[in-house]
Structure formats: C-alpha cells, structure tokens
Design goal:
homodimer; 292 residues; alpha/beta; Rossmann fold; 5-stranded mixed beta barrel; 7 helices; 34% helix; Uridine_phosphorylase_euk (chains A, B)
Chain lengths: 292, 292
C-alpha cells in the first residue's frame, strides 16, 4: 500500500490545517471521511464535473455526496471511493486545487490513489470528437517539464504520467467504439496566442506561421492542446500518485480555431461525455474487481 | 473618444464571432447592448463579483441585469455602464476572459473604457485588512512584464497600470478612512511555492529563505502578492484601456501564510468589502459627474 506523499517538513503542526480554497478544516473526523478514496476524477468546469458525478452515481449505483467544497472556488463530490473535483482553467488554478487535495488525502491516510483528468482540448490532426489519451505532456517550450518560479529561481520539475494506466484506459476506450487516439498533450498558459489561434484580441503572426507550428507539433506526435496537463503530470508524479489524462477534442486545429458550440450544442455535449464514458467504464470495472 | 483596441487582422469575418467561454454570439443586437459600457470591475470569485454587483445595484440605484454569461466558466452582470465579471484564479483564466471581453467591447464600439480589478491578496508588511492600490506590477522574476510563450518563442509584454487612475482611487480610499497603502503588486503562477509559503504540499526551502525573500520584496516596495495583476496590466495596456488594481490583503505574509477564514469568517467578509467600497464610491461619483 502506498500513501499519498507530501514533501513539506512544516506541515506537522498541532492545529488542524485549513484548506482555504475548499473551505475545509482538516479535523480527524473530516479526514476520516476521505480515507477510502482510491480515484479522483477532475475537470475544469464545475458544471461538467457535477454532471459526471451525477451520471456516475446513477450508472454505478453508488451514493452521491452533497458538494463537499465550502467555497465557490471549486466543487467536490464523492461517490464511494471516487472523488469528483473541478480545477478551473489553467495551471495556477489546477495547482492550488492539487496542493490542497493532496494535503487532504495525506491527512486522511488514503492509499493507492489514482488521479485522472477528464478534460476538453483542441485536437491536432484528429477528427473533432476524438478522445485523446495522453501518452506524455509538453510545456509551451516543448519540454516535458513544469516550470516553477520559486523566489526568483527557475525550477524544472519532471512531468510524467503513469504509462500502464494510460495504456489500460486506451484499451478500455477502444472496446467502447469511441474514436480514440494516443498521443502527446501540449499545455499552454494562454488559450489564444499561446495556442497559435487567429481569433483572439491580439495576433501578430500569419496563418502560415500558425500552420507550420501546428504541423511541427503533429510531427512530434502531439495530438491535442489544453491548459493543465503538464502541471497535472508533474504534481501527481511528485506526490507518488498514478496519473492519466483523457480529453475530448472539440476542433481539429489544423482546420479551425473555434468550436462553434452556439451552432451545435448537442454535438459538443456528446463529445464531452466521451472521455467520461471511457473513465467511468474503467472505474466500474476496477470497483467491481475490488468487491470480488 | 477612444475605442477599445484590438490588434488582429483576422477578426473581420462576415460571420458573427462566438465568445466560447462566455457562450455569447456577437450579433449586432447583442453587441449594441454593451455599447454604453464605461467601467468593468473584475474579481476572481464568481460569488464575490455577484455580491459586488448586487451591492452596487442597491447603493447606486441602477438596474442589475441577469447573469449575461451563458456558460459556467464566468459570470457577468451589468448595472448601467458598469460590467461586473469574474475571472477565476490565475493568469491563464484571466487571459481568456480578457481576450473575449475586449473583443465584445470592440464589436460593441464601446469608448473610453476603464477596467478595475477588485481582488484579494496576501499583504507584505501591511496589517491584514489593508487595501493595496497597485502602483505597479511585477512578475515572478521581479520584472514589470508579462511573459507570453508564442509558438515556442518567449515574448515579454510591458505590464503598465494607469497612474492617474491609481492615484485617484487611492485618494478616494483615503477619504473613506479605510486602511490603505499604495505599493507594487507581485503576481505569481503558483500560490504555495510560488509565493514562498510553508504550508503547501511541497516545500524545499527554509523559513529563513522565505523571510529573506519577503523582506527583499518589501524593500522593493512590494506590498502584496496575487495571481493575476501582471497579466491584467499588460492586456489592458495593450488594448488602450485604463487599468487599476485594488486588493484587500487577508494576511501579512511577514507573519503568517494562512488566512484562517474558518475561525473568523465575518472579519474576512469585512476585509473583502473594503476594496469594493473604494471602487464603488469612485464609480458613483464618476457616474454622477457624467449625468450633470
């Protein structure tokens, strides 16, 4: 059994810690409630993670908790050993959530925990609606590291996903007849210029600059871009947690920049349920196995 | 009269643009509704910005719109010429919001627009509850620029606030007997290690490293740290929009890392209303002036 690792000598204080962005005070009673957690599924949007939690509750027939977060920064739901948490958009917001969640699971003495990011992204050279299971992550400088700035110094932390978990999720997806690819995920801090879009408020490059860059990414086996993966992979690796990323793609960026959800909302709803379907099928099988 | 500037030759398409993170399709009728906007107030939390909008609606006796955002990414309220929008936590989330809001105000042909970030922060060498009006912003490397990564290249963009607006807001604050400081704001991408806290899941530095760093910041006239200012200053400057940042401080980081909101929620509620009070007093006077 492997406990969630933290690495901070200052945390052993006598007073219960307070997770300020969840509004949770880490008393023994509260932490005990999280002791059985084995899986944490996360996504940017709070509405989407609530939808996922409710759907899983119905499909797996496991009780659904109320929203366990006491602030409006994040939401958190629990269905037995599975937590559902949103992380907002971008690395800073994800990083706050992961720091506080990892402390919570550490205090709770949870063991053998797996984190899965179930997100949305822009595809590169894949049909819209394809689910990408990340085989690796790259930052904006095309390096597989999270860059952290600590007291004016630049620190690079390895961003590594769990290869076995990725392979397993990919096999589950294939069995469901969902359009699926395995590929590298690039994470950026900026959605418009950072992802070479032509439809932000500012754009100082040409269409051919953009196309050349996206083709270069494709040749490097990058299959989608989003805004959190490299931080997710780095922090889970650092905490000794198995991590995987499964994202829907809403557009093929080789063809277009904008997902016109206003013109076809039902299609995008179907797309965003696909990575959930992969993950929920996997979870239900794993939980059944544990029962037997 | 000065229009909101965008800088993107690709935006003049025949089809109405779609602001995907607000869920707003930019038809002529919809944009017309935003033509009279003169001020945009923003904050991270959606609950707080809703509270600010409702309080302003009552105090200024101006009608309050419903939530104009059609997604759960952001909320947006309108009270006459004042918009209230949340931006989530961190630069990536703020940057998406600003790109789409600036496009909206550009299509709406809004003129002479002022943006004010009304936020929360950790203070440096100031009493908890002090309001800091930012005189400037620094990034994590202590430079007054936003670092953007575009197609693998590092681009540094000046991050400049409107000096006159900051001075004016500071004078309004002083007249209200609210504890107030003018000082530099440092913006980081990471809340825990990025701000030299000792209470994250990871910490590889000593208490004295931390103290030395925070004292160095104090000597550079930094009075608070948050996670958006340098992007706010850069994008508003780039779009020709007057920008100012007014933040409550919840702790003095020279003394502590954690704001224990669980132990004194009312005090923190009072703190978070202080920067709003400064800004709402300013807005009401400006709007009255425009009437006469």
């Amino acid at each position: 059994m492997s406990r969630v690792k933290i690495s901070n000598p200052f945390l052993d204080s006598n007073e219960p810690d307070f997770l300020s962005h969840f509004g949770i005070t880490c008393t023994k009673e509260i932490c005990q409630y999280f002791n059985d957690v084995k899986f944490v599924c996360m996504s940017g949007s709070h509405g989407r993670i609530q939808l996922y939690a409710e759907t899983f509750h119905r499909e797996a027939r496991i009780c659904l908790s109320e929203n366990l977060s006491k602030t409006d920064r994040y939401v958190m739901y629990k269905t037995g050993p599975v937590l559902w948490v949103n992380h907002g958009m971008g690395i800073p917001s994800l990083s706050i959530m992961l720091n506080e969640l990892i402390k919570l699971l550490y205090y709770a003495e949870a063991t053998d925990v797996t984190f899965i990011r179930v997100g949305t992204s822009g595809g590169i050279g894949v049909e819209p609606g394809t689910v990408v299971v990340s085989s690796g992550v790259l930052n904006e400088l095309l390096e597989p590291v999270l860059i952290l700035h600590v007291m004016g110094e630049v620190i690079k932390l390895d961003a590594i996903l769990d290869k076995n978990l990725c392979d397993e999720l990919y096999e589950f997806g294939k069995s469901l007849c969902i359009p699926l690819e395995k590929g590298i995920t690039m994470s950026t801090d900026d959605f418009y210029e950072g992802q070479a879009r032509l439809n932000g408020a500012f754009c100082n490059y040409t269409k051919s600059d953009k196309n050349n860059f996206l083709k270069k990414l494709y040749s490097m086996r990058v299959r989608n871009m989003e805004m959190e993966g490299v931080c997710f992979a780095s922090i889970t690796h650092r905490a000794g947690i198995r991590g995987a990323i499964v994202c829907a793609t809403f557009v093929d960026r080789l063809n277009e920049d904008l997902a016109r959800k206003d013109q076809a909302p039902n299609i995008f709803h179907e797309y965003e349920m696909r990575p959930f379907k992969v993950v929920s099928t996997y979870l239900i099988e794993k939980l059944e196995c544990n029962k037997n």
